[in-house]
Design goal:
This protein has 167 residues and is of the alpha+beta class. It contains 4 helices and 8 strands; from the N terminus they run αββαβββαβαββ. α1 packs antiparallel against α2. It starts with a helix and ends in an 8-residue tail after the last strand.
């Protein structure tokens, strides 16, 4: 399984970095990428471009895969907004550990959207979709109650108009 994760996630890292993002966390078979910048619309565009590239890379790798594992199905949650970014230091009697992280409601909602997504979906919020009209074929899924999120979130499925065939 480690070989599968390394192969796919290496391609995802390339896709994220190609559009100015950085992978900040990896947990099991999931990862968190952030696209920092002063222009929210540009950051959303970069994240969506990386998402398209990740979808393409996954399709290529799934076609080339050995029969030792099932095809990988993506579950993507996209959100944007203010987050506390920087180094977090955890200290205990056993030592300390440093992390670069993005924290706040924006990352929590992205994680919940990811959990809500099914086989290949990239879910975002209506507010984010409204920032980039025409970027995707957006399909509204309606208001959703997300775990540990106080308000309902208007969820939108972002279907790519056309994927770049290059991984």
């Amino acid at each position: 399984m480690n070989d599968v994760i390394e192969t796919y996630f290496s391609g995802y890292l390339d896709a994220v970095r190609a559009f100015g993002g950085e992978v900040t966390e990896m947990l099991g078979d999931g990862l968190l990428a952030i696209f920092e910048g002063p222009d929210l619309r540009a950051s959303v565009e970069a994240a969506m471009n990386a998402t398209d590239r990740i979808r393409t890379a996954t399709a290529v790798l799934n076609r080339r895969r050995s029969r030792r594992h099932d095809p990988i199905a993506l579950h993507i949650g996209l959100n944007a907004g203010q987050a506390l970014t920087g180094v977090i230091r955890l200290r205990s009697r056993k030592g300390e550990r440093w992390f670069y992280a993005a924290n706040g409601p924006v990352t929590n909602i992205a994680a919940r959207l990811c959990a809500l997504a099914n086989g290949g979906q990239a879910l975002t919020t209506k507010a984010i979709a409204d920032l980039v009209p025409g970027r995707c074929d957006f399909r509204r899924l309606g208001p959703q109650h997300l775990k540990n999120v106080a308000r309902t979130v208007e969820v939108v499925d972002c279907n790519p108009k056309q994927l770049d065939p290059r991984p």
